[in-house]
Amino acid sequence: MNKQRLTAIALLIVLIASFSVLLSIGSQIYREKPPIPTAFTDVQGQPLFTQNDIERGQLVWRSMGGHQLGSIWGHGSYVAPDWTADWLHREAQAWLDITAKAQYGRSFNELDSIKQAGLEQSLRDDLRRNTLTTSANGEIRISLSDTRIQAIGQVSDHYLSLFGDDPELSTLREQYAMKEGTVPDLERRQQLNAFLFWGAWAAITEREGQEYTYTNNWPFDPQLGNTPTSDNIVWSILSIVTLIAGIGALVWHHASGKHEELPKPAEQDPLFLKKPTASQKAVGKYFVTAVGLFLLQILLGGVTAHYAVEGQNFYGIPLAEILPYSVTRTWHTQLAVFWIATAWLGTGLYIAPALSGYEPKFQRLGVNVLWVALVVVVLGSMAGEWIGVQQYFDLDTNFLFGHQGYEYIDLGRVWQVLLLAGLLIWLTLVTAAMRPALKIQGEMRPVIWVLYASCVAIGLFYGAGLFMGKHTNLAIAEYWRWWVVHLWVEGFFETFATSVIALMLVRLGLIRARSANGAVLFATVIFLTGGLIGTLHHLYFTGTPTGVIAWGAIFSALEVVPLALIGFEAIESYRMRNASPWMIRYKWAIMFFVATAFWNLVGAGVLGFLINPPISLYFIQGLNTTATHGHAAFMGVYGMLGVGLMLFCLRGLTGQIQWSDKLLKGAFWSLNIGLAAMVFMSLLPVGLTQFFAVIENGYWFARSPEVIHSPLVETLVWMRVPGDVIFGAGGLFLGAFLFDIIRKAIGAKGTQAIADAPLSANA
């Protein structure tokens, strides 16, 4: 108990210290964010873009899909360009040509290397110089040279045509997977230009008194003087040293620890003898919904991937007019969160009464009301996003009901608030059911409290997304967005899952309660030590100060440390499948836990660290290397875990109904083989191809049609089809399995008892 108490104190210290650092860094980002000036002006003081233009332009960008159509500062989707890098490259080429013709009467490419080098130095002097001035009344003005204003005019004209329906750029729009007339209104396109220029200005303008830009010299473009900073290189090396030291310390601890033998399982399944409560039966519809959303996500993923080849068509069908890339990708990424969260929330509602043996009054009603609310939010937000991208909303209504433009937090503000309300209802229901268990002075009390604390965090931390307002500076918006994506999804859901699995295995008599307590507390401390502050590795180049690089590099390396020993967890889980004859009931649930451990090592660990060090991410942020890690970690870890938890709960709900081993076997192997195929046959090779392109020609080139639609990359995109088909088959196997047990449940209960069947529509 003393050791557990010390571990609990260590956990409390980690939480306090980590959030203190996160909040301190956040306050620094607020102070040192790239400024939005009152106006960008010419040397005479005439405004080119005003603050209102930039802020309204940000709303236009959000309404057309935001991160789901290209990226800004490296965050977003991968088929269209990174608008920051693209703008800077186009502006630089225009500036060089304008100056070359003015000084030498020839285009820049016609000059000899000495003259070109001289003009490139003049280009860097002009674009990197910070001309920000603040007046006595607080107005911020930034003056631009006449040459630069001419270059900006050329880029603006290009974007006005690109985001409209100019037939001369129809081929380029198709290559970018943009629908015709992406932003039909001319005034909106002009405002969009203001916002895109501001993002590019922050990426090329040096901070006052420094020799690096607001985005720490990102994107890589040697012609513009954007090369890695010393912080970028030094902290990357130190992060690798930290990783090696951390793994060494953890191996030492593991080797020196006392390893108890597993207990002898009971003669009969301890869970099989207990009948599910009314609220637990009602949870069945959550798992049906989760599988339905999963199948829809798979379908949309196939369409979205195909747009990388045919930007406006799906095998010749002009689908983009109805479902453009920005919509299908929005739904694909959002449904990933929705279906996994639905499975996990259903698990929480099922496990809470199981832990306490207590069924609160009106618990079933609450479970049913929450399910209805979930369906309303899912369907309502998806409809709003489609209407927003089609530009049917005005900009203010789009913010409330349409598309917010931030990846994984795309749903409009009203839907976002409703989802938070739903999570708070879930927390209330879990609290009501778990309350007796929290008061019991039993062996599992520490793990139960860790589980409950993670439930509280899940209920509350989604609210971090509400700190982003309608006109919030993008640097601050990214800070709060990653609080949701990293802390909510990658942090507290992970703690929740670890606790739930431990409690399930203890209840089955497969591990000792004392061992589970120590393992869960220690794992939580180790994970959160790196995981909380490690959030900052997403923010290296989003308009943040250099301190973010130091904190993010070291602690994101510590995130990977516990994953180095994840193989032990996989082997121990695998051995449990044969611990007792009745364990055959849980075989596939445990196999999905094994898959979770595997993908934790490969997807979150190996492929995650590929993009974690600052020097690595500097070159490959926003390339398909990011998608490689995203697919392997999100589906491999959280998706597989969601399926495993769902199967565990369904085992209790279905009683003596015979499961189809063939369907579950097909689902397990198809999902895992398909995921591996799409990752290693397509996504990773494309990402590495782009990596070479960045090093050789600059970041803008790796995101250009010359690379994205090169014969090699298009072939690699087509190589994704086998993996997608196999993975899709796995989803169908899972759906068929669920349909099979529903059919058997209805048959077993008879027509009169359909209303009480655990997985019926009336459950």
From TrEMBL:
Residues 37-219 form the Nitric oxide reductase subunit B cytochrome c-like domain. One of its GO terms (molecular function) is cytochrome-c oxidase activity. The keyword Repeat does not apply. SUPFAM superfamilies: Cytochrome c oxidase subunit I-like. It comes from the Bacteria. One of its GO terms (biological process) is aerobic respiration. The keyword Transmembrane applies. The chain crosses the membrane at residues 233-252, 286-309, 336-358, 370-393, 413-434, 446-468, 480-506, 518-536, 548-568, 588-611, 631-650, 671-695, 725-742. Keywords: Membrane, Transmembrane, Transmembrane helix. It holds the Pfam family COX1. GO terms for cellular component: membrane. PANTHER family: CYTOCHROME B SUBUNIT OF NITRIC OXIDE REDUCTASE (PTHR10422:SF38), CYTOCHROME C OXIDASE SUBUNIT 1 (PTHR10422). This is Putative nitric oxide reductase (Subunit B) transmembrane protein.
